[in-house]
Amino acid sequence: xxxxNVRTPxxxxxxxxxxxxxxxxxxHKFRFKCMNQSQKEYSNLITDKExxxxxxxxxxxxxxxxxxxxxxxxxxVSNPYKRIIISKPAVEAEEKIGFIPGTEREKxxxxxxxxxxxxxKIIGKANRLKLEIAELLVIQPLGFIRGKTFDNAIIxxxxxxxxxxxxxxxxxxxxxxxxxxxxxxxxxxxDRYNDVRQSGLFDLFVKHxxxxxxxxxxxxxxxxxxxPLITKILDNYPKTEIPDIDEEIRKKKQxxxxxxxxxxxxxxxxxxxxxxxxxxxxxxxxxxxSTEYFDKKISFKGVKKFFKEKFTW
Length: 313
Fold this sequence. Notes:
By secondary structure, this protein is α/β, with parallel strands linked by helices. About 35% of the residues lie in helices and about 15% in strands.
C-alpha cells in the first residue's frame, strides 16, 4: 500500500499558537484598586504615556500602582504587551551580604523580592510562577541590558535613586516598539549617592521634562498609605526638592536678555582698540598680538578694574 504524503501546515512564529492565553493561565482577570487620588492620577498617567517617571517617599504605592496597572494592561488582549519585565539596581541598603551563588535569576532574587511580593499579593504566588515559567514575567539584571531591545513589553524599573545618569540613559534607549517604560524611586533614600542630585532619577526629572511623551509624577508625604506614622517620621527628615524646569528656563532667558541689553547700553563706553599688531617669536614660532588703545590714560590695571565693575553682577 502506497504511503500518502501528508503536508505539515506551516506555522508562523508570531501566530497565536505560540502565544499562551494569559487569562486562561491565571484563571480570571485581576484588578487592583487605587487607595487615593494620587494613585489614580499616577495610574492614568501610566495608561496614557509611553514613558513614566515617578518620585516620592516610601509607602506611597509607587511600586504597587506600577505593577498592578502593568498586570491589567498585560491581561487585556487588545493591548500589544506580551510580557512584563521587572528590574532593580543590585545595590544593598548600606550593608554588603557578600557573594550570592546561583543563576542570574537567583542572584537577583534578594533585590527584586519586594516587587515579587506585590505580584504575589495581586495574582498569587502560584500564578506568578506560571508566568515566570512561560517567560511572560521576566526578572532582568540591569548589568546585562546594553544592546537589548524590549519590544511589546512593559518594563518596570524601581529604586531608580540608586541608578547613575548613564544607566538611566541606557535604560531609556532600550525601549522598542509597542512598549511602556515605568521608572520610579525615592530621592530621599539613596544607598549609592550622598548627594542624590547626582543620581539618575534626579537627572531624569531635570533633563527630560521638555518631552511631552514622557509623563512625570511626584508623590509627597501626604500620599503615604502604608502607615500614617510614616508620614510623621519622614516629615522630620530633609527633603530633596526637584527644580521647576519651566521656571529655570524662564530665568535663563531673562538673564540672557538683560545681559544683551546691558552690553548694548555699555558698548560705546568700552575702550576701543586703535592698532592691533602681531609678531612672531623666532624660537617658538608663536604669534603674539598686542593692542594699543586711544585712551592712553587708562592703564592695564584701569582696564581690568573697568571690566570688573561693568561685568560683575
